[in-house]
Specification:
- The protein has a five-stranded mixed β-sheet, with no helix packed on it. A four-stranded antiparallel β-sheet has the order 1-3-7-6, with no helix packed on it.
- It has strands at 3-7, 12-13, 17-25, 36-42, 48-51, 55-58, 61-67, 72-81, 86-95.
- 19% of the residues are buried.
- The termini are far apart.
- With 100 residues, the protein is mostly beta strands.
- Helices cover 0% and strands 58% of the residues.
């Protein structure tokens, strides 16, 4: 299993577009690309959305954007399979805007 760092930063508000970023490195810390990658989001209503497209701007770096349409607790997951396997998850909370 390769190392996978998953990152979402900052306060998140309903209606905002968020960028998910995952980095994948081998045991020596070198960036690697799995053969296939999937980014999924579990929303507050427990539905799961597979986010597409996933970009690969550099070896070992994967990004995707997603519009947050519900307030509550989310979890996003990066899954890489093939010659390198990687798994990472991060939970985050989305709030309603005080100005909505």
């Amino acid at each position: 299993m390769s190392n996978c760092g998953c990152e979402v930063n900052g306060q998140l508000i309903v209606g905002q577009e968020v960028q998910f970023t995952a980095t994948v490195v081998d045991i020596n810390g070198n960036p690697v690309n799995p053969d296939t990658v999937t980014i999924s989001v579990k929303q507050p209503n427990n539905s799961v959305v597979v986010v597409t497209p996933v970009s690969n701007p550099a070896t070992g770096t994967f990004t995707a954007t997603f519009v947050l349409d519900q307030a509550g607790d989310y979890v996003w997951q990066f899954l890489g399979n093939g010659s390198f396997n990687a798994l990472g998850e991060q939970a985050f909370t989305v709030i309603e805007s005080a100005f909505s």
